[in-house]
Design goal:
single chain, alpha/beta, Collagenase (Catalytic Domain), 2 domains, 4-stranded antiparallel β-sheet, about 20% helix, elongated
Length: about 475
Amino acid sequence: MLAYTPVSAQSASRGPRCGFQTLKEKMIAKDPTWAAKFEAQKAAMQGIADNYKLMQQSGVVAKTSSTRSAVPIIFHIIVDSAQFYALGGTTGIIKRCDSQIAVLNRDYNRHNPDSTSIPSSWKPLYGTPGVTFGLARIDPSGNCSPGYEVKIISGSSTTDAGYDVLAETIEDEKTASTGLAAWDNTKYYNVWCVNFTGSSNSLLGLTEPKSFGSGAYQGVDILYSTLGCTAYDGTVPSGTGSWPMPYNLGRTLTHETGHFFEIWHPWGDDGGLCPWNGGSDDGLSDTPPESDAVYGNPTYTITGGTYNDGCQFNGATNTQPKGIACLSYMDYTDDNAMHMFTTDEAAVIASMVLVAPGGSGTTAGEGTVGENYSLTQNPSLTIPCAPAAVAVVPETSADLNIFPNPTTGQVTITLNSSAVTVKQIIIINLLGQEVMTINGQNKDFYSLDLSGMSKGIYFVKCNLASGDVITKKVLLQ
C-alpha cells in the first residue's frame, strides 16, 4: 500500500507510501499463525526466482510464451462529485485509464523511457516481468465495457467522501450497496480508485494478493488522484484534472501491482533493522539488505551505483557494493525516482502468470502453474466491442455509460465527452412507457435511484441539446 503526504509536508519523516506491512500486521493480530506463513513465503522467494530463471535457460518458458495474453483490468472508481471533476470528469477518466495501462505495459516490459537513469552497475539487474495489461472491454455479463465503472458517493462535505481501509472497512468499497463489487477475480484484475479517509488518509495504495486468501477483496486500492500519468516532465494532459505531486507517473499502481504478483518491499518492513541484527528483507538476493524505506528522489553517491545506508556492512562484509535498490519500483521513492524491477523481482512476477508444461520432471518448474495464470487466459476480454442492438429501444451510442449495470437501484450515468449537454433523461420500461424524467443540469454525470421500480430491463434515453439522442439499457435486479 502506498501513502500520500501533501507536498508541503514531504520530508524523511513521511509515513509509509504503502500499507502492505500494516495489512500483514492486522492479519497476524487476528491469527498469529500468519506470522509463520509470511516467513515461509519470504523464504521461498529466492527459490521461485531461481526456478523461473532455470526455466528460461532451459527453454521451458519460451514454450509457453504464446499462451500469455494481456491481463484485463477493471478500474472501479468510487468518488464524490468534487473528486469526479478533479479527475477531469468522464473525459479525464478515460485519458487517465488509457495512460495507466500504458505505464504498466512500459514498466512491466522494460520499455520505460526513464530507464536511462539506471546506473551502469544496475543495468545488468534490469529485469523484464513480461506481463502485459489491457482495459477490460467485456464485463462478466458479456456486455461491452469501457474498462472502468464509476460510482458517485457523498460525505458530510465535498472532500471527505471515501473509505478508511486501515480501519477494516475495506469491504465497504468492495460491496455493491456501499461501493462497487469485484468482477470475477479469476478473469479480471480488480483495481479500486478511491479516496482514503480517517486512519488511511495518508495512503496512496493497498494490495490484497491471492496469498492473503482475501477472496472477493483480492486486488488493489489506489488513491483516486494517482490514477494515470502526466508526461515525464510533469506536463499535465489537457482535461485530466490534477495529481498529488510527486506521484504523477502512474507508479502507485506499478508498485501495488508488484505486491499483487507477490513481491515485497526491499527493506523487509522491519523498522530500520538489518537481517543480521534481528531484521529482515524481501527474500531476494539482488536487492541488497536495506535498513528502511527511501523517500524523495535521492542523490546517488556511488559511481555506477546508488548509495549506501545503515545495512552496508555485515561485520567486515560490504553487502551493498552497488548501493541499495532505492531505484526499484518497490521502494517508496517519488515516481520519477523509480526505474526498474530487478531480475529476481521480475522472475517472481513472471512466475505468477506462468504455466510450465509437464514433462520428464528433470527440468526445474515443469508442471508449475502460477497463482495468477488464469488472468492471462481470456484474450477476448480486452478486445473493444460495439454494443449490440436490443429490442424495443436500440442502444444508439457508446458515449453513454451506466454504472453499476446490472444494478439494485442506485446508478451513475456519465457521458464520454464534456462537450455535450444533456437536455433531458428519460427512463423507459419494456412496454415503451416513460417511468421517470429528469431535466438536464449542465453536468456530465447524473445519479439516479431506480430502486422503487419493478425488476427488469429499462432504457435510459438522453436527449441532448444538440438534438441528438443517446440510449442505453440497464438491468434492475
